[in-house]
């Protein structure tokens, strides 16, 4: 990931060791490691400020003026559950963090202090073990309809049309994650199969249908040649620099074409195209366990949210209610 390096990021040694553990042992992606770093950096800064007894700076909600890399080992190990709840209240009121964002911070704190307890033996007990995750509103995934998906594909244009069309075709047909898409190398494509590297460094195979194969062929015919020193060239590259596309650049590409198709402004993103692929497959006869494997979900419950998007059985049950077609006599005339 561009712009972030574990070794160059200012951090106390305990935190740096944890980030290296996440990356090298747990196989977390660079984006995930950076998210943990940002969460824990803010927590440690908050603890330094609150423990000092000084008022928190009103014009510095992220507490960037506090040099947290100098935090003492004793203060990190001395964190209490009350520190965490006070911190969560702070980011909710000052940074306007919603429940989902605060839940991620809870996961960051739990993981860090579990590591300090179980992997370093510096703590006898994990002070964050009982830290509860904020209740979150469970929303149904946003997705494009079949008609909207076709309209999006038909509207793709511009100097990088073949590349952008290939990106969106794969997202809509294969349902892979953004990180998996940008990580595709030419060597990952064999005949009609694609090998992707998912969460936790887990590889899985995805089959490419005719639409994907055709889009890949058209893109490869115009794709810039990789630099001569490229070991295993990536599939999707910049037409100007020939460098691999970053996740943010793909987000911009998807947002641009959604907006051009009149589908922007509705919270659609590369991840929503993943939702679209999953929903369309489920609506057209793919069973939920096959979908779980295709999406790379560890837990079936994660996949089952798609069964609530357009559940025909629920519609049948509603129609089976004997009151379904009841109409009062005074409304019949």
In short:
This protein has helices at 13-24, 30-52, 73-77, 81-93, 99-118, 146-155, 161-174, 178-182, 210-220, 247-260, 270-283, 288-295, 300-303, 312-320, 329-332; strands at 189-190, 193-197, 203-207. The protein is mainly alpha-helical.
Low-confidence stretches: none
Q: Report mean pLDDT, rounded to a whole number.
A: 84
N- to C-terminal distance: 68 Å
Q: Estimate the helix proportion, in percent.
A: 40-55%
| Secondary structural class | mainly alpha
Question: How are the strands of the biggest sheet laid out side by side?
Answer: 1-2-3
- Determine the strand fraction and express it as a percent band: under 5%
Principal-axes shape call: globular
Major β-sheet annotation: 3 strands, antiparallel
Total number of beta strands: 3
Rg: 24 Å
Question: Any overview of this molecule?
Answer:
This protein has 15 helices and 3 strands. The protein has 333 residues and is mainly alpha-helical. It has a 3-stranded antiparallel β-sheet. Strand 1 and strand 2 (193-197) form a beta hairpin. The longest helix is centred in the first third of the chain and has 23 residues, at 30-52. The protein starts with 12 loop residues before the first helix and ends with a helix. The model has no long low-confidence stretch (mean pLDDT 84).
Structural features:
single chain; 333 residues; mainly alpha; 3-stranded antiparallel sheet; 50% helix
């Amino acid at each position: 990931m561009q712009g972030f390096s574990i070794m160059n990021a200012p951090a106390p040694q305990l935190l740096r060791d944890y980030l290296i553990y996440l990356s090298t042992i747990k196989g977390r992606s660079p984006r995930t490691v950076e998210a943990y770093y940002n969460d824990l950096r803010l927590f440690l800064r908050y603890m330094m400020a609150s423990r000092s007894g000084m008022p928190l700076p009103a014009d510095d909600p992220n507490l960037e003026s506090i040099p947290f890399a100098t935090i003492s080992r004793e203060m990190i190990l001395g964190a209490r559950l009350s520190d965490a709840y006070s911190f969560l209240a702070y980011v909710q009121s000052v940074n306007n963090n919603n429940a989902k964002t605060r839940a991620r911070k809870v996961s960051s704190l739990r993981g860090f202090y579990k590591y300090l307890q179980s992997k370093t033996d510096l703590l006898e007990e994990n002070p964050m073990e009982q830290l509860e995750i904020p209740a979150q509103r469970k929303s149904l995934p946003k997705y494009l309809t079949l008609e909207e998906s076709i309209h999006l594909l038909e509207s793709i244009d511009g100097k990088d049309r073949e590349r952008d069309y290939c990106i969106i075709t794969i997202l809509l047909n294969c349902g892979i994650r953004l990180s998996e898409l940008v990580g595709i190398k030419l060597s990952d494509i064999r005949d009609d199969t694609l090998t992707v590297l998912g969460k936790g460094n887990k590889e899985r195979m995805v089959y490419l249908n005719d639409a994907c194969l055709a889009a890949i062929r058209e893109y490869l015919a115009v794709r810039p040649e990789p630099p001569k020193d490229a070991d295993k060239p990536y599939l999707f590259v910049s037409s100007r620099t020939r460098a691999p596309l970053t996740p943010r650049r793909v987000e911009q590409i998807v947002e641009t074409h959604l907006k051009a198709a009149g589908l922007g402004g509705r919270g659609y993103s590369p991840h929503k195209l993943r939702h679209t692929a999953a929903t369309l497959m489920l609506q057209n006869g793919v069973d939920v366990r096959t979908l779980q494997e295709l999406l790379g979900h560890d837990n079936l419950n994660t996949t089952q949210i798609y069964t609530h998007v357009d559940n025909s059985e629920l519609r049948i049950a509603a129609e089976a209610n004997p009151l379904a077609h009841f109409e009062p006599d005074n409304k019949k005339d």
